[in-house]
Amino acid sequence: AYRRVSHIYNARHWVNSVTAARHYGAVIGGNYIEVRYEDLVLQPRETAGKLLSDLGVTLDVAFMDRFVGAI
Questions:
Q1: 35 and 47 in contact (C-beta within 8 Å)?
Q2: What angle do CA 59, 62, 68 make, to 5 degrees?
Q3: Dist. CA 44–CA 36, nearest whole Å
Q4: What per-residue confidence (pLDDT) applies to 33?
C-alpha cells in the first residue's frame, strides 16, 4: 500500500538510490549506462539515440519518431 512520507525523506531516498546505482555501475563497468530523466525528456531523440548506440542497437528512424512523439 502507498505510504505518504515527507519530501525530505523522498529526496534522501532518491540520493541514496542514485548513489547506490552509481556505485554498482562502477563495479560492473561498461555494462552500466546512466540515463538522466531530464535528458530523456528535454532531448529525447539525442538521448535515446546515444542509448541505442551504446547498446549496439541499430537506429530505426520510424521507431525513433514514434518514441519522440510519445514523450
A1: yes
A2: 85
A3: 11
A4: 92
